[in-house]
Amino acid sequence: MDCNHPSDWIPPTSLGFSRRNMLGTLSCGFGLMAFAGLAGASALRLDDEDAARRIASGTHHSPRAKRVIFLSMAGGPSHVDTFDYKPELSAADGTSLGQGIRRGAKLLKSPWEFKAHGKSGLYVSSLFPSVAQHADELCLLRSMKTDVPAHPQAQLKMHTGSFQFVRPSMGSWLLYGLGSANDNLPGFITINPQGGAQTYGCGFLPAPTQGTPIRMQGGGRAMMSGAGAGQGALPNISNPLLTREAQREQLDLVQKLNKERLKRDPRSDQIEGVIESYELAFRMQMEVPDVLDVSDEDPKTLALYGIGEQETDGFGKQCLMARRLSEAGVRFVEVTAGGWDTHRNMKADLEKKCGEIDRPIAGLLSDLKRRGMLKDTLVIWGGEFGRTPYAQGDDGRDHNNKGFTMWMAGGGVRGGFSYGSTDPTGAEAVENPMDIHDWHATILWLMGFDHERLTYNHAGRDFRLTDVKGNVHTGIMA
After folding, report:
1. CA 168/CA 163 separation, integer angstroms
2. Number of domains in the chain
């Protein structure tokens, strides 16, 4: 149904809506709701001819990575307690700040010990003993910065490049540029997203590029409904009332009606997109449960991720699911772990949080490496900002957007490498500062795209993920 066709719309007058027009207009909404959550290369081609031409011509240059796994730490993990070693901060512990809006606040050394690890000698906190064993795979970005120290805005900035306007997310841009690698799965999946739907939304990009959310239950099991509930599935994919054969017959009838409508209105890209998305939804029933069901994994693999142990089971399953989805052809998988907003009770909370994710992340890196996937999978870890070097209360740190640490592994980056730096106490990025536009530009480059050329024309202007800014930091490339 083409909602923009003048013959389909009767404006409210004294005559009101016709019954036929009202039903037709409502059907547009239902069709677009289904269309928005389902992705596939065929739908992309139908929805946007320019996208099809660009996908057919390939990336702008030879990519270092084929896929992304983004481990998003919502809440702002403290860099000076995890991956940004600051011996000067320890020496200045208890010293009062002499100027600025936090005048009088006292510097707080990290309660945790940092040690050099691997052949590279990268310093990692004792909070991450398992990840530290992969020090030679890590590229520490120790000079990150962002615009605002508020969680909602910084989350939007990190995901979309803008905290002021509705813009497509990073995952949507990558799917728009690359297309799907598996016709039976969405190309962009986000597990336990936080920060609102805008963080995985497609904005003005074609609807199939939107992220598909998977919500996990307490035990790390994917939310599911209907048949196959014991295996793990996306909500509403399974039909508890009809057999697969009956669904096929029903779908054939619906598609026949859609195609008849398309003959009467061949200009409607929306109808073509809905036709393709229905087919994708039907195909997903066969593949999604198997991909999300981790019960067939070898016990040694489950143990690698910490699955079966209370502390690490939930996040371990999510990391294993991310590997399985990536292996099956999903271009961009985001796994979110919240709880990093340590204004108080930092020592206990940070130890608990790191204990939940340390072993699963190390397991993910090991699993990718032994499968030969790490070399072309870009693994990213980090939050929307960091924490202050000075104390908040007796046992906490405030937000810090001026300097923090993220890291990457695999996907063509330099392993065992520290890039950039903050000042001696970790308060502000001073060497090779990398803002969010730079970060996005660098990720796109690793995936084979020039961030200035990956554009989409909307409202009379060519938009891009990096807006009108951003520089590729080639110093982190292997």
Report:
1. 11
2. 1
Q: Determine if the pTM surpasses 0.85.
A: no
Other C-beta atoms lying within 10 Å of the C-beta of residue 20: 10
d(CA 337, CA 147): 22
- Identify which of 380, 429, 438 has the alpha carbon closest to the alpha carbon of residue 407: 380
Dist. CA 24–CA 8, nearest whole Å? 7
Residue 335 is part of a domain; what is its CATH number?
3.40.720
Flag whether pLDDT at 97 surpasses 80.
Answer: yes
Whether 460 has a pLDDT exceeding 90, the answer reads yes
Query: If you search the block for the tokens 């090779």, which residue do you land on?
Result: 432
| N- to C-terminal Cα separation, the chain | 50
Task: Give the pLDDT of residue 129.
Answer: 98
Q: Is 49:361 a contact under the CB 8 Å cutoff? A: no
Question: Can you tell me the distance from the alpha carbon of 448 to that of 21, in angstroms, rounded to the nearest whole number?
Answer: 46
CA–chain centroid gap for 361, Å, is 15
Instruction: Specify which of 203-207, 269-273, 360-364 reaches the highest per-range mean pLDDT.
Output: 360-364
Residues written for the chain: 478
Residue 151 phi/psi, 5-degree rounding, is -55, -55
Least confident of 265-274, 306-315, 350-359, 426-435: 265-274
DSSP category for residue 328: T
pLDDT in tens, 434-457: 999 999 999 999 999 999 999 999
Cα separation, 196 vs 204, whole angstroms: 17
Question: CB–CB of 440/177 below 8 Å?
Answer: no
Whole-angstrom CA distances from 430 to 144, 245, 382, 404, 442 are: 10, 63, 19, 11, 19
d(CA 96, CA 90): 13
Q: Is residue 83 situated within a structural domain?
A: yes
285 assigned to some structural domain: no
In a domain, 336, yes or no: yes
Q: Is residue 459 part of a domain?
A: yes
For the residues 37-41, what does the mean pLDDT come to? 41
- Helix (H) or strand (E) run with residue 273 in it: helix 269-292
Which contacts qualify for 99-104: CB closer than 8 Å, 24 or more apart? 102/388, 102/390, 102/398
Q: Return d(Cα 452, Cα 173) in angstroms, integer.
A: 12
Q: Is 314 helix (H, G, I), strand (E, B) or coil?
A: helix
Tokens of 114: 């940092």
Contact between residue 210 and residue 202 where contact means Cβ atoms under 8 Å apart = yes
Residue spans of beta strands (DSSP E) within 248-396 = 332-337, 377-382, 386-391
Residue 258, Cβ density class (10 Å: 0-12 exposed, 13-18 middle, ≥19 buried): middle
Find the domain containing 435 and state its range: 65-209+297-476
Pair 375, 384: CB distance under 8 Å? no
Q: What is the mean pLDDT of residues 460-470?
A: 96
Give the DSSP letter string of 64-77. S-SEEEEEEETT--
